[in-house]
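Reviewer comment 2.1 asked that we show a complete input and output for one of the modelled complexes. We chose the magnesium ion case, as it is the one discussed in the main text.
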Amino acid sequence: MAGVIIKNLTKTFDIQGQKVKALAGINLAVEEGSFVTVVGKSGCGKTTLLRVLCGLEEKTGGTLSFVNRANNFLTAEQVRISIVFQEPRLMPWLTVQENMGFSLLNHVEKTVVRERVSRYLQILGLTKFKDAYPEQISGGMAQRVALGRTLCYEPDLILMDEPLGALDAFNRQRLQRELLQIFQENKKTVIFVTHDVDEAILLGNKIVALEKGIVLQEIPVELPYPRNMKDKNFFTLREELLSLLLTD
Ligand SMILES: Nc1ncnc2c1ncn2[C@@H]1O[C@H](COP(=O)(O)OP(=O)(O)OP(=O)(O)O)[C@@H](O)[C@H]1O
Ligand SMILES: [Mg+2]
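Response of the prediction step:
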C-alpha cells in the first residue's frame, strides 16, 4: 500500500492557445490506508488531479511523492495505481470473470488469477453472472465488475472518479456499503471523487474540498462507520460542507 504527498502540484492545459490552469498548486497528504473523498464544483480539477496521479496526464509543476506507513519513499514504479471511471469501460468480447482477471493474465499465475477473481466475484455478488457478457448485465452490475477488476489487480492506491455517479439510488447505496466493507477489511488507500456531499461524508475519513484547482479545505471525519445520515454530527458536517462549496 502507499500514501501520497502532493506539493504545489500544477497542471495547465492549452486549449487553442488559451491557457487553462486546471490545477493551480495542490498541497495534500493522503495517508496510507486512508479513504479520502474529494468534492468540488464542476471544472475545479478533480478528474485532472486523479489523471495526473496515475500518470494518464503529465504534471506541469510541483512534486508527487509516494510513501508507505514507515515513511519510506517509493518510486512511481513501486506503486501499483488503479483508476475506476464513472462508466465501467468493460471489454464487450470478454465475460464478467474474464474482464476481472484480464489485466493480471501476463503478470500473475493462472491459479492465483482464478482465486482472486472468484473471491471478488463473491464479495461483489457477481458469482452467478461470471460467464455473462457486459451487454447481458445491468449498469450497476457492470460497475461492480469494473470495481472487481480494480480490486483483483490489488493496487496500492485506488483512484475513483465518481464511480457510482451513474447508478440509481438503490445500487449506489449497495455499492457504497460494499466499498466500505472492502476498505475496512483490506485497508486500501483510496482517493474518491464525488459530486455528492452525502457520499463524501458517508465514505471518507478525510474530505478534501477543491476550488479552482486548489485545496480550499481539508475536513477530517471522525464519525464511526457505518455512518448514519440522520445523525446530528452528519447533518452538521453536511451544512458545513454545503456552505463552503456554495459560496463563490
Ligand atoms: N484534456 C484536456 N484538455 C484541455 N483542458 C482540459 C482537459 N481536461 C480538463 N481540462 C480543463 O481543466 C479544467 C478542470 O477539468 P476537470 O475535468 O479536472 O474538472 P472536474 O472537477 O473533474 O469537473 P467535473 O465535476 O465536471 O467532472 C476544466 O477547465 C477543463 O476544461
Ligand atoms: Mg470530472
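The domain at 3-80+155-246 is CATH 3.40.50.300 (Rossmann fold). We note this here for comparison with the apo prediction described in Section 3.2.
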